[in-house]
Amino acid sequence: MLRLTSDAAPEMSLPQFCWTDIQRESALELEILTLYDSLRLPLLRYSVSFGVPVADGEDIIQEAFLALFDHLRKGRPRNHLRGWIFRVTHNLALKRCRFHRYQSAWIVWEDFRPEEYVSDELNPEQIAMERERRAKLLAIYKALSENDRRCLQLRAEGLTYREISNVVGASLGAVSNSLARSLSRLALSDQR
Amino acid sequence: MFDHNGHLTDEGLILLIDGEASHASADEALAHCAECLACRSRRTQLEQALATFADLYSSTINPQILEPGLERRAELRAQLATASPKPPAAWLGRLAQSRGYLFSAMAILVFTILALSRTNTFIQNRLPSAQTALRLLPDRALTPGAIQAVDLTEVCLTQPEDLDPAVPLSVRKTVFQEYGMNVAKDNDYQVDYLINPQLGGTRDIRNLWPEPYGSTVWNAHAKDALEDRLQHMVCNRQIDLASAQREIATDWITAYKKYFHADNPA
Question: Is the ipTM of this complex over 0.85?
Answer without folding.
Answer: no
